[in-house]
Amino acid sequence: MMSRYAAFVFFLYFGVVSHGIEVEVKNDDKLCLYANLTVSFSVTYEIADNKNKTISFELPANASSKGSQCNDTNSILKLSFLDGHSWSVDFSLKDKNYQADTMTFVYNLNDSKVFPDSSSNGTVTVTTKPDITDVGVNTSYSCKSKDTLVASLQANMTLSDVLIQAFIVGGNRSKNLTTCPADTPVTPTPTHVTNATTVAPVTNATTVAPVTNATTVAPPTTPTPTLPTPTVGNYSIRHDANSTACLLANFGLRIGFTQNKKYQEVNFDPPTEVSGSCGVDNSELILVSNNITVSLSFYNDTKKFRLHAVNVTINSSSGVFAQSSANLSLWEAAVGSSYMCNKEQNFTITSLLSFYTFSLHVQPFGVKNGLYSTAEECFLDSDLSFLVPIAVGVALSFLIILVLISYLIGRRKSRTGYQSV
């Protein structure tokens, strides 16, 4: 029979104390799987008034390892906690190496202690594939660095201080380690050479004396090239395969984001995955392209619709960037019409996230026969936008004339006063 236990342990790493959980799984009284790690979760869920709330919590120390098991080719580490929540990893062994195939997080939105004020019900299951591969059968996988895994638009998992041996031979743990790339120190590349001797080439038997104490000069920095106009994507959502579109959208999108105090911009290419839903009061469009996921949520108040929530996740070379806002009032138009803006628009989503849209046309409600309804144009597209510089010019001209008249009148009075003395 299999026995197991979970205990609370502490890690001291770079002077910071963190919490973790230690698990031993046995088969026939022999240790077959060992794990010692810290897992934290971040979940965004819906509350009243179509708002979202984000909470973060750690895998608790009293999590139960019931359901964990291991055999010759497959092992499962499963930790259940609180009211209907669990986290698990499936491992597989091939030849002399093993890997983690899937990581699964199950959370229960009915648990009011973890998810207060949740307006959603039921249990949500999200999965992802961790980067734990090619681990020798007689070694443990070690990774002290934090690794954030984006399982969905709503749920992230962060692992740290990880030590796992999924297939233990003979019931005894191995002291050999397979270390993750994030823990591997990087040797800095020299930026310049001092006290170097540079010899000029010899031409026509003319010898040039060597130059000592020379310093190599770095080449001038090339300015970051301006991004081209993003490609316009055309998107539609249907209730089912036999129905016409219930949500229409087309636009080019550039995303500006600040990560690690560095501002960057990236064009969002037409996605490889398009999904979403259409409702009476709420509709959603989810786009996935390369390493970027964009979720757009629209709200219908019976008179007008608007873009009220945005969620963006970017897997960049610097790590995972994730930002969301659920208090927006953008792309607003009357229900039964569409919203259009051909010119470039700039929207501040959060302090770290901006949208630049091009050739925007969207209708999330009231689509008939799969076609756009009459469009309400943005101010930039309307003829009124050309009146603004004209009005400003007229006002300035009038002000200049008024100043000149005042000056002339004042000067004339000054002269009259002088002559009367």
Question: Would you give an account of this structure?
Answer:
With 421 residues, the protein is mostly beta strands. It has one helix at 387-419, and strands at 4-13, 16-27, 30-47, 51-58, 69-70, 74-81, 85-94, 97-108, 123-128, 135-136, 140-143, 147-150, 155-165, 177-179, 196-198, 211-214, 233-238, 245-259, 262-268, 273-277, 282-289, 292-300, 304-316, 319-325, 330-334, 338-341, 345-350, 353-363, 375-377. The strands form 5 sheets. Strands 1, 2, 3, 4, 11, 12, 13 and 14 form an 8-stranded mixed beta sheet that branches. Strands 17, 18, 19, 26, 27, 28 and 29 form a 7-stranded mixed beta sheet that branches. Strands 5, 6, 7, 8, 9 and 10 form a 6-stranded antiparallel beta sheet that branches. β12 (147-150) and β13 (155-165) form a beta hairpin.
Topology:
Elements: E1 4-13, E2 16-27, E3 30-47, E4 51-58, E5 69-70, E6 74-81, E7 85-94, E8 97-108, E9 123-128, E10 135-136, E11 140-143, E12 147-150, E13 155-165, E14 177-179, E15 196-198, E16 211-214, E17 233-238, E18 245-259, E19 262-268, E20 273-277, E21 282-289, E22 292-300, E23 304-316, E24 319-325, E25 330-334, E26 338-341, E27 345-350, E28 353-363, E29 375-377, H1 387-419
Parallel strand pairs: 11-14, 26-29
Antiparallel strand pairs: 1-2, 2-3, 3-4, 3-13, 5-6, 6-7, 7-8, 8-9, 8-10, 11-13, 12-13, 15-16, 17-18, 18-19, 18-28, 20-21, 21-22, 22-23, 23-24, 23-25, 26-28, 27-28
